[in-house]
User: Fold this.
Amino acid sequence: MNIKLRLTIVSFLQFFVWGAWLITISTYFFSNNMGTGVQFGAIFSTLAISSLFMPALTGIIADKWMNAEKLYGLLHLLYAAVLFYVPQVKDADTLYYVIFAGMICYMPTISLSNSISYTILKKNNYDVVKVFPPIRVWGTIGFIAAMWVTNLSGSKANANQFIIAGIAAILLGLFSFTLPKCPPQKSIAKDASFIEQMGLKAFKLFANYKMALFFLFSMMLGAALQLTNMYGDTFLDDFRKIPMYGPDSFVVKYSTIILSISQVSETLFILAIPFFLKRFGIKKVMLMSMVAWVLRFGLFAYGNPADGLWMIILSCVVYGMAFDFFNISGSLFVETTTDQSIRSSAQGLFMMMTNGVGAFLGSIISGYVIDDYFTSVAGDKDWHNIWLSFAAYALVVAVLFAIFFRHKHRPDAIENVQH
Assistant:
């Protein structure tokens, strides 16, 4: 089989096994009355917690002791085992530990899949910069496909979503053992300190005011990055409780498919990023992302399945700009402003502050806020004001970023990174 096709299959399944349940676990959790918003926030925070340490640990294992493709396959098989166990869990406290175990297995495979693809493509003399992006796009397609399968199979409110993901994870785990070997590179020196092995040297960047401010805003925006993934499907599904819409509403029946527009939007906005960066610069593009988050939440606040359907659709379209513009422009800011010797570690620190610390705080705090201020005694959620509060938070972050963060646009730096 053609090596590019094999890596495309890996990319597709890598995100299929996540997309089958990530967007709909909230609907499953609340539909089955498994616990409170605080408990759900804690469960969702396991994505962030595992992102803080597992990618670094598995990176060291793959660098020093074990073939990357074998480690990757083993992690997916363990992940599948956890997913198959989820239907047995009936309470929130146990579900927390089970999902945490699953995330410990899954989260490091995202970076491992990239490393495996880079290694195999280089060994086969492919231009990685040219060949890898079209392969990676199939990951987003896999995520979208999984959302559609979960929705159309009637699994968004039951445990079948985890079975779907588990079956795909087994297929991916077994398939990965057939990939070309990616042996340890021994890239970490034997006498390297623990700090060097864990990539912690980049923490010295906090001594630089501009970088410290950037990482602070990364954390603050990171708190917003997963909120619509956490609550989006539950929000749309809850329209079934309103008599004028009901369970037969198109938005209620196909909520996950509607939300998949967000992932389609991602792929389109990725293609637009080079133009926006060259024209407006990194700071303005990051600011556009923050304003887009205000719109993302605000449009959800006023949207509904009838005359407000266009707002829900537009919110999903805006998501591509909100998510991609910050992640990619932020990554380029790190690339163009840090010393080469700690650049990889600095990128890891950026991801840790957004998808680790920021996402953890967002998951936990949002659970408390929703439970304490926007949930009735009967358990119904005031989604209008929930989304407005999230929009207000994003607006405050955007205003503070515009005032305090200083960065001069250098088109030459962008050109150097692109080439």
